[in-house]
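Entry type: protein chain
Record version: 2
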Amino acid sequence: MRDLIIALLAALGVLAQIAVVLMAVGAVIWLVAPTSRDRLREARDTIRAGALWMAWGAATVATLGSLWFSESAGFVPCRLCWFQRIAMYPLVVVLLVAAITRDRRGFWYGMPLAVIGALVSIYHIYIEVNPSAESAGCKASGVSCSARWIDEFGYVTIPVLALSAFALIGALLLFHRSRSGDDRQMPA
């Protein structure tokens, strides 16, 4: 059962990566090919309409996944994992409140946490790939930041899952921020 849940979480991470790439490609096409905007408008508007709820869903799945890794699978979080959790966990509450109240400022509440979390995730991935770059602070916490608790599909580790979630949340928040009816603005 443990292996099945890990594979499911890794697959969700890959789906998040694909969604971010598709949104980025759509934004580039929107910018460089104005004639294609009519075809992209429906997708943009659909994503925009549910962006806060989708971002909240991504934050909730990431939070529950990280809790499952530590509480059920027995993976002890390292120092960098804790920093990523510090950025992710509040997003569940912040994005839920923003979605319920339909607060257009949800972008400003969530984006700083998503960016900080993504930066920590990138550094954590760097430490996993280059264990010799690990700081004494990571080693002193008792759990090495270079330890790979999972390695699915040849590259999906826990920090990669965190980065995937932060990137998806950030992309959705960009869609949420874009203004309705402003076709000159890129969709993300």
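Comment: The helical segments are 2-32, 37-71, 79-101, 106-129, 136-140, 158-177.
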